[in-house]
Amino acid sequence: MCAYTQLGSQVSNETSLHKACVSGHLAVVKLLLGAGACTQAKTEGGEQTDGCTPLQMAVFGQQGNPNPHALAISKLLIKEGAELEAVDADGDTVLGTAVIAGDPTVVQMLIDEGAKLETKNKKGESALDIAR
Fold first, then answer.
1. Which end of the chain is more exposed for a tag (fewer CB within 10 A), N or C?
2. What superfamily does domain 16-131 belong to in CATH?
């Protein structure tokens, strides 16, 4: 298990890696990963981000502001061991989150990397259902 320093909000337990990923700061993500930041860390208690990994934050971006570096950051996180099948508190997978975000290049990359299309969230929806 990896260790990480929690420098973020007390409410949502966002790590510095979460914040860099959601903001699209590729250089900062590289720096943090080089320093041993944990790709599996999950947020806690955030209204829309409860249980999210840095990869889920990267593919979603900030609300109303897509992440321009989502593809590059996502590839880097996967290379560093981020779990493709991680689910948030709602049961949404990384792929489901990417479908919601609406970036087809990220969605295709996740499928190419082996993300499962059939995994259902707590509402009983798969990434395919969400895409329809």
1. N
2. Ankyrin repeat-containing domain (1.25.40.20)
